[in-house]
Structures are given as C-alpha cells and as structure tokens.
C-alpha cells in the first residue's frame, strides 16, 4: 500500500514582517505617542494585553491597521515586572518586606530590548531603513535595531491575533 504524505508548508506561506527592537525607558503610551508623531501613523492601545503562557505576565500592545497600505503595525512591550510576595521561610533580609519583583520577557532572547515594533507588510529595504532611522531620531530612544525573526526561538510569541 502506498503512503501519501501531505506537506503543509506548501499551503501556508510564512508571514512577511519587519521587527524592530527599541531600547527606551519611556512609558509605553508615551513611546507610542512619539512614534505616531514621527512616523505619522495612528497606533492605539488595544483593550486587552497579550497574556503569556505562564499567565502571570501581561504585555501592553498598541496597534494600527493601515487599510490603504494593507499593513498592520504593532508596538509591544517586551518586559513585564510583577511584584510577588515571598514565602515567610524564604525571606532573605531581616528587614525586608518579603516582596520580590520577577521580570518576564516576551522575547527572552532579547532581554535588553524594552519594546518591539512589528510591521506586517512586505517592505523593501529602503522603507525599512527609513522607518528605523525615523525611530532613532526620537530623542528618548536610546537605540533601535532590526531583529531577524528567523533566528528567534520564541517566534510564536509574535503572533498577536
């Protein structure tokens, strides 16, 4: 009996997107405002945050769907800090309040990146460089750089819909 094998890679094309890592100490809403102003886009805060698999971490997300260019823009926080109560027997300090802060990352490979800008569209190199340079012009942005999504181990964390 012949065995037939169906390869799903033929049916699902990998989504084309640009990913930019942003280093900045700004609050998420302030960074979204400055990016909107610089790039003349309209990012808005979504009503629900992205929830991580561990259910403790929530990441803020801003989105803009550009109908004219058929492009979806997402600005997402890469870090989530949660204050937790320590168990009474594990308090390290005699004078401590028994609370610790645990930090979670949407992309653990990029722990130093504060925000991620994902642009779901087929942009050419010139358009990508123009967007990156415009973001780098924001005074409160320390650094911005491209992230190669093909090298990510946690690429599934970038699926927002």
Automatic annotation (TrEMBL):
- Superkingdom of the source species: Bacteria
- List the InterPro entries hit by this protein, alphabetically: IPExxxVDY_fam
Protein's UniProt name: IPExxxVDY family protein
Gene source species: Bizionia paragorgiae
């Amino acid at each position: 009996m012949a065995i037939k094998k169906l390869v799903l890679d033929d049916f699902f094309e990998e989504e084309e997107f640009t990913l930019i890592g942003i280093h900045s100490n700004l609050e998420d809403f302030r960074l979204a405002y400055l990016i909107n102003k610089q790039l003349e886009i309209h990012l808005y805060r979504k009503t629900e945050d992205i929830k991580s698999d561990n259910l403790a971490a929530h990441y803020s997300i801003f989105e803009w769907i550009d109908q004219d260019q058929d492009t979806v823009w997402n600005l997402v926080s890469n870090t989530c800090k949660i204050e937790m109560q320590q168990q009474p027997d594990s308090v390290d300090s005699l004078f401590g309040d028994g609370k610790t802060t645990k930090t979670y990352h949407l992309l653990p490979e990029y722990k130093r990146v504060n925000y991620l800008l994902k642009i779901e569209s087929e942009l050419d190199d010139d358009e990508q460089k123009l967007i990156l340079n415009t973001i780098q012009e924001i005074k409160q942005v320390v650094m911005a750089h491209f992230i190669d999504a093909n090298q990510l181990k946690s690429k599934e964390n970038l699926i927002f819909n």
